[in-house]
Amino acid sequence: MCGRTHLIFALAVSLGAAPALAVEAVINPTGLPTYPNLNNAKMDSVARTDKLGHWCNRFAADTSDALEVVEAWYRKALVSPSETDLNNDERYKNYSRLTGVKLAVGIDYVTVFRTADRSTTSIELFRCSPA
Question: How many structural domains is the chain composed of?
Fold first, then answer.
């Protein structure tokens, strides 16, 4: 390296801008809390209606963290959520060997679950509008 390039590189390292793998920012426009340790995430491109006529936007993600850890995090992050076992939720009846919960605050809700055929915990955030 020439002296100037070496100086610029050293300055970048000291400022924390050294070449490294970029961490992609997770954009969650739902306003619901985003679990901090996600492997990947995406927002559905269109809203869908539920059985009660609410239009809901879905943010879906997964993490390598244990199901129990993610459930506990969301129980603390949400204000007084109601809780339903996903095995009792019509929307999830077709999943095989499902373990997880639905945590609802008003008409908005979070689902956290794991199926026997996946090694990751799935997280879905649903922000809904009144019917």
Answer: 1
